[in-house]
Design a protein that fits this description.
single chain, 439 residues, alpha/beta, TIM Barrel, 8-stranded parallel β-sheet, two-stranded antiparallel ribbon, 52% helix
């Protein structure tokens, strides 16, 4: 009886192994890569051998089961080969194409050697560093690693790398406790205005000074989404905007954000205001699901968007655009790759010509749909930088999307030229800041 139950369980288990094998490169399965994949392949092969020696190959149903367990490790191998072939295609991109497209990508990474190849070949514009890059809490090792990457850029006659981090304060402080664990900016909102401004600037100074010490030159902060009056969804596992937002009052948000941005800048670190068009009224968690922002535009302009406009007008902060669909403008695609939002509202109506970066493209709201379409539409809409943060290995797929579109003449040359000019100005500012620190 126990044996029959065990064999019965091998059927769904074999299907699960096959699913994992064919989807081994999916971001949701990132924890199974490397040794995890090798272990799964070994288990699949071992079970196939055991079933053969136990005589299951002599029966019709047994043959099917054995084949399934043979296919499990083969599917893992096939997925790995597909990944490696795409990776090699990207690494051997013709130099002019690599430089033309690579200046639009910021990537997270785990392997120094791998990201170094991308950096010195011009296939990326920047890197994103987070907790796992600290390698056991060793800040000096990360500082040396970033410096080595920048040295390779200099040797390759390429602009300095953008080096970005998520150090908001509060629950999103991805380089703490190696760096100072500051409370959330929301703790400053009820202070007298003069004290609030001084404290917000000091927070920015502390973050900026410590990030610059590591070699980080861009912080993905501050958050300008308005805090919702109540929790809108029980399935918000990652966004947690109610705990990250500065306030539900747009005046207070801007009042804290601007001096914080100024404090960052005093240490040579750029700011990134996020996540336009705002997550405070959104019910879905875009890390995993598509989500809609259904508020009328006049209401958004009068409230949610005021901090964004004030911060962009009063600083050189980047603007991060999130993956919610702005229903009143473009209900068919996320704001991060909507021409009606990027070129129509931000560039056109607001007349903003600073650098725009997407939220992480390795999020369910984008990646679980047609990521290639999103990449092409984002570049054609006037987005300057595409972020591939959570799973840097997805860069090869995402870059391939842009490369294929370039080969097919589906990228808007005028939009790319305008973006190149914006990124050129950013690189010039970065080079001056780096030269100032070196002196």
């Amino acid at each position: 009886m126990v044996g029959r139950i065990g064999v019965a369980l091998l059927w769904p288990l074999a299907l699960a192994f096959l699913f994992i094998g064919f989807n081994k490169n999916d971001p949701y399965l990132i924890s199974l890569r490397g040794t995890g994949n090798m272990l799964l392949a070994a288990i699949g092969a071992a079970l196939a051998i055991v079933l053969i020696f136990r005589g299951y190959w002599q029966r019709t149903a047994g043959k099917v089961l054995v084949l399934l367990w043979c296919l499990a490790p083969l599917s893992i191998l096939a997925a790995h080969l597909r990944f490696e072939m795409r990776k090699q295609d990207v690494l051997h991109t013709e130099t002019s194409t690599a430089h033309r497209l690579g200046r639009h990508f910021v990537v997270g990474y785990s392997s120094f050697d791998e990201v170094a190849k991308l950096a010195e070949s011009g296939l990326i514009a920047g890197i994103y560093v987070t907790r796992h890059n600290l390698k056991g809490g060793n800040a000096e090792a990360l500082r040396s690693e970033i410096a080595a990457l920048q040295a390779r850029r200099v040797a390759a006659n390429l602009p300095p790398l953008i080096v970005a981090a998520d150090q908001e304060g509060g629950i999103v402080s991805h380089l703490a406790p190696v760096l100072t664990e500051l409370p959330a900016l929301s703790t400053l909102t009820d202070l007298p205005i003069d004290l609030r401004d001084r404290m917000a600037e000091e927070y920015g100074r502390i973050h900026g000074r410590e990030l610059a010490m590591l070699g980080v030159n861009l912080n993905f902060a501050p958050v300008l989404d308005l805090r919702p009056a109540e929790k809108l969804t029980r399935f918000d596992f990652n966004t947690l905007i109610g705990r990250r937002a500065i306030s539900g009052d747009p005046t207070k948000v801007a009042g804290v954000a601007l001096p914080y941005i100024r404090g960052l800048g005093l240490s040579g670190v750029g700011a990134t205001v996020k996540h336009f068009p705002g997550l405070g009224r959104v019910r879905g968690d875009t890390h995993h699901f598509s989500a809609d922002l259904e508020t009328p535009l006049d209401e958004l302009e009068a409230s949610d968007w005021r901090p964004f406009r004030q911060a962009l007008a009063g600083s050189r902060a980047m603007l991060m655009v999130g993956h919610v669909r702005l229903a009143a403008v473009d209900p068919d695609r996320a704001a991060s790759h909507s021409e009606k939002v990027i070129d129509g509202i931000i560039r056109g109506k607001w007349n903003h010509h600073g650098v725009i970066i997407t939220d992480d493209l390795v999020m369910g709201a984008i990646y679980q749909h047609d990521v290639c379409t999103a990449v092409v539409e984002a570049l054609n809409a006037g987005v300057d930088l595409l972020l591939v943060a959570f799973d840097g290995a997805q860069f090869y797929r995402i870059f391939s999307c842009a490369s294929e579109a370039a080969r097919q003449s589906r990228l808007d040359s005028a939009m790319l030229d305008a973006s190149d000019a914006r990124l050129g100005r950013l690189s010039l500012r970065q080079a001056k800041r780096m030269a100032g620190r070196a002196e």
